[in-house]
Amino acid sequence: ASKAYGDNMIEVEPGIWALFTGDLDANENIDLQDTPLLENDITNFVFGFYATDLNGDGNVDILDSDILQTNINGFIYAIYP
After folding, report:
1. pLDDT class for 7, splitting at 50, 70, 90?
2. What is the percent of the chain with per-residue pLDDT over 90, rounded to a whole number?
3. How far is 60 from 77, CA to CA, in rounded Å?
4. Do residues 54 and 71 make contact, with C-beta atoms less than 8 angstroms apart?
5. Which uninterrupted H or E stretch holds 37?
6. C-alpha angle with apex 10: 42 to 76, nearest 5 degrees?
7. Can you spell out the DSSP letters for 49-74?
8. In the prediction, which pLDDT does 1 show?
9. pLDDT of residue 9
10. Given this model, what pLDDT does residue 25 score?
11. 10 pairs with which residues across the strands?
C-alpha cells in the first residue's frame, strides 16, 4: 500500500492490494453522482468491458452496486502529489 501515493489502496486478500473503483463520471470523486450511471447499465443488462463493471466479471449487475456503495461510504477521492 505504501507504494501508491497517499496509501490509497485497499488490501483485498492477505498481501493482495487493489486500487479503488467507482468514479464513473470521472470527476475524481466516488460519490452519489456515479450511482445513476451504474443503475442505467444494470437496467439495460450491459455486459462486456465497461467502466460500470466494477467487479470485472463481465456483467454490469447488482453485484457491482456493493462496491460502489462501499467506496461512496468510504469518501474515496483522487489524491495527487
Report:
1. confident
2. 72
3. 22
4. no
5. helix 35-43
6. 60
7. S-TT-TT-SSB-SHHHHHHHHHHHHT
8. 64
9. 86
10. 96
11. 18
Q: What is the CA radius of gyration of the chain?
A: 13
Closest CA to 24 of 60, 57, 58, 48: 60
The three-point CA angle 80-20-46 to 5° equals 125
Give the model confidence (pLDDT) of 57-75 as tens digits.
999 999 999 999 999 999 9
Q: What is the mean pLDDT of residues 23-33?
A: 96
Q: Which three cell numbers stand for residue 70?
A: 462501499
Question: Which three cell numbers mark 6?
Answer: 497517499
**AA letter at 76:** I
CA angle at 41 for the pair 38 and 32, rounded to the nearest 5°: 15
Beta-bridge partners for 77: 29
For residue 66, the tally of other CB atoms under 10 A from its CB is 11
